[in-house]
Design brief:
Layout (H helix, E strand, L loop, with lengths): L10 H15 L5 E3 L2 E3 L14 H9 L3 H4 L16 H14 L4 E5 L11 H7 L2 H5 L10 E5 L3 E3 L15 E3 L7
Antiparallel strand pairs: 1-2, 3-4, 5-6
């Protein structure tokens, strides 16, 4: 992550903020109680809980998003960090819904190849509802909604020699039938 000076910042404020962020990331900020920490966030950077809090955050980080989709570094220079994967899903869904154009929905596989031994147990333990509800790092969601101009990030190495590696950010340019 890169921090840059805003209009009203000074270099010492930026250094203090960067050190505070690093302490949070290293687990050194806050009071540790039973393996958990309580971190006090300054009120001037806290987004208050409201009906429009997520919209306000997206508008702040990605101002005038529809007009800036064609700018090459627009998404590269911005990011929303989220504490849980459920929050990431909410942000992604909200941002995708705000993009113009037709969406395409891709669903994951939701069945298990059961072995002969404990087939009934496996079918009960891995029902489609359970498989569709899995939300963990490194896996796309069960329902992936995409639109043209949407930014996407690769989760696996597809073709390293051509730069299609885990973490590569791309933008969907157009739908092509393969």
């Amino acid at each position: 992550m890169r921090l840059s000076l805003g209009e009203n910042n000074n270099i010492q404020e930026l250094r203090n903020f960067a050190e505070w962020l690093l302490k949070i990331g290293d687990g050194l900020a806050g009071d540790a109680i039973d393996g958990e920490s309580i971190v006090h966030i300054p009120s001037d950077i806290l987004i208050k809980k409201s009906e429009t809090a997520l919209d306000d955050l997206i508008d702040f980080v990605y101002p005038d998003i529809l007009s800036n989709l064609s700018i090459e570094n627009y998404f590269k220079d911005r990011v929303i960090l989220a504490p849980t994967l459920d929050c990431v899903t909410d942000v992604n869904n909200k941002m995708t819904a705000g993009l113009l154009g037709q969406e395409r929905v891709y669903l994951s596989s939701d069945s298990v190849c059961a072995e002969e031994g404990n087939m009934e147990f496996e079918l009960d333990a891995f029902s489609p509802e359970i498989l569709n509800g899995i939300n963990c790092s490194g896996l796309p969601p069960h329902k992936l909604v995409l639109k043209v101009d949407a930014p996407v990030m690769l989760l696996q190495n597809i073709d390293q020699t051509n730069g299609l590696c885990n973490g590569t950010r791309c933008k969907l340019e157009e739908w092509k039938i393969m």
